[in-house]
Design brief:
The chain is an alpha/beta fold. It has 2 domains: 4-313, NAD(P)-binding Rossmann-like Domain (Rossmann fold), CATH 3.40.50; 318-481, Alpha-D-Glucose-1,6-Bisphosphate, Chain A, domain 4, CATH 3.30.530.20. The protein has helices at residues 13-24, 87-105, 125-138, 158-169, 188-197, 219-230, 244-254, 259-269, 280-283, 291-303, 348-355, 368-380, 455-481; strands at residues 4-8, 28-33, 51-55, 73-76, 110-115, 144-149, 152-153, 172-175, 182-183, 186-187, 208-211, 217-218, 235-238, 336-343, 401-402, 405-411, 416-421, 427-437, 443-453. The chain has a 7-stranded parallel sheet, sandwiched between helices. Strands 14-19-18-17-16-15 form a 6-stranded antiparallel sheet. Strand 1 (4-8), helix 1 and strand 2 (28-33) form a beta-alpha-beta unit. Helix 2 runs parallel beside helix 3.
């Protein structure tokens, strides 16, 4: 029998998958998001009686007025690890506001997915923050069930994508000391099984449970195991010279993660994340997937372009404020622009399809090598670089990550796409594509790059890259207007 469930962090990696699992279980759901325009409600194919979307930001208590009363269970899936150095304070404030809302609204139970670590050792900032969140939620008068997970293995998860980046791109891997730390990886499928299964066990209220897969492995074993599944031959060179800070920079340069996120992850990887008790297995008996099976499932989803959620899609993975979605119009004053107007020489639908396929694995229509160099430079400056790619090769929605851009607007019917730069810049940048009717008949593509400089350094930056713009932007507009396919070596 279904119950009424609230899911916070509904747009996140776990949230989107959990909602589908809960719907499959016959439950009614209230999804809490900061911006409902970013929530793909149409993807679930159910009416508002089964899935209701409510806007609310748990960092702002005043925004929580529309939360429902009397939810049978409320999932806490909020994290701020990728948002910068003050993420621990943000996480604690979110937890405090969530606890107050749970008490005020009469929610019957809180279910929290946290991190696995020993109770009797000094923790990294990330793991310590996760534990403080649990304590804050437990301090509420609403009963809490806490599930503590080790490494989660699934298509789109941060841990899996970092392992994948390292194994796929490097024929030789330098392995620092922390790769020998043990963990207990668990498949995303089994995480969802536990999160949904716990609803049917009210006796778990007030308790914490460790959840992990069937194997204890080192992080080096995880990389080697991935290589075995993919049939990759790699050379591993152990070293004691890479400190956690140097390791963080190494991960930032070689994978799709940012430096703050890499630093938080590396600090946490020095701690064993192994289950200290497995009583959850008696309460919810599952057929736990092995690490190899979890990797094979993840790769199958990637091969089918069927990745329902990814860590890079979260706003916490970049620098964009949700408020920018309210400013769909690009600034017109105090900005520098490059605008190209090109007649369409291919059918409109073909041009739109080509615009919607830019970036990611397909690359960029003009001087793709230059985009790669800009991404590398961004990584060296501590930015996110270009490696995070895109969620789907042909689909774009508002809020999606696209290389070092974030999608602000994706109106396919009108042929309008607006991107906001999340790279390190002395200012702000937008890139917009719009198909418009021409005065003499026919249609044109308007491509506009806009830069709002910050001080003298910003203006110097714009004029320094202007020669590249003169070569790159006209060619890109022409190719898009022709619906041209590109190669990654262009």
């Amino acid at each position: 029998m279904g119950v009424h469930v609230l899911v916070s962090g509904a747009n996140g990696y776990i949230g989107l998958r959990l909602i589908q699992a809960l719907l499959d279980g016959g439950h009614e759901i209230t999804a809490v998001v900061r911006d409902r325009r970013r929530f793909p409600v149409a993807n679930f194919g159910v009416g508002e009686s089964r899935l209701r979307v409510v806007e609310g930001d748990f960092l702002e208590a005043g925004s929580l007025r529309n939360l429902p009363d009397g939810a049978d269970a409320a999932y806490y899936l909020i994290h701020s690890m990728g948002s910068g150095g003050d993420f621990a304070l943000k996480e604690e404030e979110c937890a405090a506001n969530f606890s107050e809302a749970a008490k005020a609204r009469g929610w019957k139970r809180i279910i929290y997915l946290g991190g696995l670590a020993a109770d009797d050792e000094p923790l990294s900032e990330h793991l310590a923050s996760r534990r403080r969140v649990e304590e804050r939620l437990r301090g509420s008068t609403v009963p809490l069930t806490a599930l503590r997970a080790s490494i989660i293995v699934g298509s789109g998860s941060a841990s899996f994508e970092i392992i994948r980046d390292l194994a796929e791109k490097l024929p030789m891997l330098v392995t620092p000391r922390w790769v020998h730390t043990n963990c207990q990886p668990i498949a995303i499928r089994n995480v969802l099984d536990y999160l949904t299964g716990i609803l049917g066990h009210p006796e778990t209220a007030g308790a914490s449970y460790d959840i992990g897969g069937p194997e204890v492995m080192s992080y080096l074993d995880l990389i080697k195991g991935y290589c075995e599944v993919r049939g990759l031959r790699r050379i591993f060179l152990p070293t004691r010279l890479l400190s956690p800070r140097l390791s963080s920079g190494w991960l930032c340069l070689l994978t799709s993660t940012s430096f703050p996120l890499a630093r938080s992850l590396v600090d946490s990887l020095t701690h064993e994340t192994v289950c200290h008790d497995e009583k959850i297995r008696q309460i919810i008996p599952l057929e736990l997937l092995s690490y190899r099976e979890a990797v094979e499932r993840a790769l199958a989803r990637i091969a089918q372009n069927h990745v329902p959620s990814s860590w890079i899609g979260s706003l916490a993975a970049g620098t964009l404020s949700p408020r920018l979605f309210d400013a769909i119009k690009v600034p017109e004053h105090g900005v520098l622009t490059d605008s190209q107007m090109v007649p369409l020489t291919a059918p409109r639908d073909e041009v739109v399809a080509r615009i919607w396929a830019i970036g990611g694995g397909a690359g960029w229509p003009s001087m793709n090598w230059a985009w790669g160099l800009r991404g590398m430079a961004d990584k060296l400056m501590g930015g996110i670089g270009i490696r995070r790619g895109r969620r789907h090769p042909k689909e774009l929605h508002a809020g999606d990550a696209l290389d070092f851009w974030r999608v602000l607007l994706a109106d396919r019917a009108r042929g309008r796409l607006m991107l906001y730069a999340e790279m390190k810049l002395p200012g702000e940048a937008w890139l917009e594509f719009a198909i418009e009717d021409a005065e003499g008949g026919g249609q044109t593509l308007r491509q506009t790059a806009t830069f709002r400089p910050q001080g003298l350094l910003g203006r110097f930056y714009w004029f320094a890259v202007l020669p590249f713009h003169w070569m790159l932007f006209p060619q890109m507009a022409r190719k898009l207007a022709a619906g041209s396919e590109i190669s990654n070596c262009e």
